[in-house]
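Fill-in record for G protein-coupled receptor kinase.
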Amino acid sequence: MKDTYQSLCELQPIGRKLFQQFLQASKPQYMATAEFLEDLSDWSFAEDETKEKAKRRILTKFCRLESRGFLSGVTGKDAERCKHLSDKNIDEIVLQWKEYEKQRISDKYFYEFRTLGKGGFGEVCAVQVRHTGHMYACKKLDKRRLKKKRGEKMALLEKQILEKVNSLFIVNLAYAYDNKTHLCLVMDLMNGGDLKFHIYELGERGICMERVVYYSAQITAGILHLHSMDIVYRDMKPENVLLDGKGQCRLSDLGLAMELPKGKMICQKAGTAGYMAPEILRQEYYRMSVDWWALGCSIYEMVAARLPFKDFREKVQNEEVTRRTLEDECRFEHKRFDAPTKDIIRRLLNKSWSIASVVGLVQPPWVPKANVVYAKNVDKFGDTSDVQHIELDAKDEEFFKEFSTGAVPIQWQKEMIDSGVFDELNDCKLNQLTLTSRTCTIL
């Protein structure tokens, strides 16, 4: 993390909280400014029905002369004075927490619970942080299986990309560490199942249009966040969209994601059959357009419970799916397809991206309004053959060391604040009392 104002006082939760405390302990106008910033943040994430009320509250509280919190404006004199302000205690607290943040992470840091699923490189299980009680999902990657399948580079790339993203619409990484047998990625726990399950396994196949629009908007927000960081997802499909307990969805499994600097294009074939864009199938150079094609396929699937170019449980070779994708037109035979849905799918399933622009492609309600919260690749890795004979050498150990970077700053700091640990350890009065553990028990 950078040592800039934006990084320390805005992006990092503990730094932001300490900065707010500093403002509140300063002159009255700084206290009002801290309250204003907090209320403004709440307003930016408010739903439509409460947004106007929140706006009026802000105007009344901070923009009226008779109001106690009236913001008179920070003068040039005050701004100059701020340059000489320092608080040694706050500096020490920040450094202490940053040091604590860098502690070595191991299996002893967590309680481990039941297995949630299994994949080609290992399994996913539920874990709980011992001293905060926070629940996560731990994705375990078998070291020997990774080496046998030459998946080390893909695993490291996924981990590095996960470290960079921080979005409400993407499953975020909290910790990365290793033990004797596995590399471990500890991420947000999503206990609502994946979108594919909701399409095919809950009553009548398909999803009602209201939920299709709702999920599509959140998925679009996740894709836009990745694209804003020059990251192409390349594996957009309902199976990789996970729901939390409140029904909010997030993108998961960034194993095929790739960071593309400005102007760079790739022609690598990657993705899942039925969702791959024509430019991938033709092995042409591409950037972000392939994610919009896959989103179009996913919206179609949410509505019709089948893919645009492959029917549900249809036994067909991948070559035929490729031919249909390149040559056939998308047909809308399901009764739930209305005019707006057909329009967005047609625009997303554009077979000539070389002459198309993605600017303004997705419009509300398919994309959220600003600041409103709303097999993994071609080759299957699910090989069950024995890997006990695989030997790990010094080069492997160097790779494991590069992978095991411990806590991810923003997610770790958020956990410390949300669990109450930060307030407990920094409250002098509380420190004089016997603290009660916040760790819960799951039977």
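KEY FINDING: The longest strand covers residues 110-118.
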